[in-house]
Amino acid sequence: MVFEYIVNHAPESITKRLEALKLHRERPDFHPEESTYEHIRIVTTRCIRANNPHLVMCGVLHDIMKKDTAKINPPEHKMAGYPTSPGHDSASASLIRNDLEIQTFIKKFQADVDIVEWLVSQHMRIAQIGQMRQGKQDAFRAMPHFRLLEAFHVADNMLVSDDEAFTQMMNILKPE
Questions:
Q1: Which of the residues in the chain have pLDDT under 50?
Q2: Which domains are present in the chain?
Q3: Secondary structure of the chain in the HEC alphabet?
Q4: CA end-to-end distance (rounded Å), the chain
Q5: Of 64, 65, 68, 127, whose Cβ has the fewest other Cβ atoms within 10 Å?
């Protein structure tokens, strides 16, 4: 399976947003790729390589609402002029929760809607785990799909190579 195949089978609510994301540039310190669309393509391709349908669907959908939630960083911000998309994670999860065509799309690719929605909703939170109190960290790590989220977090990191991301993901997903 390849990214283009998935996109060709996606509902219009997804393909229209993906098309708009081809022109959406993000902060280059976190996203050296040319657009959010390209970021989604890279992350999804990494997830395809890991052969996990929940991760694949999370790859397609995790940043789908970035343009819809975008604001420009103010002049006093270190990344002034670049867009930021606060709440894109919860907006993307809400889109999944409220769009039956997207839910059907997720199921068509053998993924569980609830798992994908949770991964999408939490994909930014995991980046803050080091700043959480230990009790919150422990509770978060105890969640049923935390290992999937950890693996996705690696796939979503554009500062590591594809091969390094794959190795790290497979180590995380190894049965205990």
A1: none
A2: 3-169 (1.10.3210)
A3: CCHHHHHHCCCHHHHHHHHHHCCCCCCCCCCCCCCHHHHHHHHHHHHHHHCCHHHHHHHHHCCCCCCCCCEECCCCCCCCCCEECCCHHHHHHHHHHHCHHHHHHHHHCCCCHHHHHHHHHHCCHHHHHHHCCHHHHHHHHCCCCHHHHHHHHHHCCCCCCHHHHHHHHHHHHCCC
A4: 27
A5: 127
- Phi first, then psi, for residue 84 (nearest 5°) are -130, 155
Q: Which residue has the tokens 């785990």?
A: 129
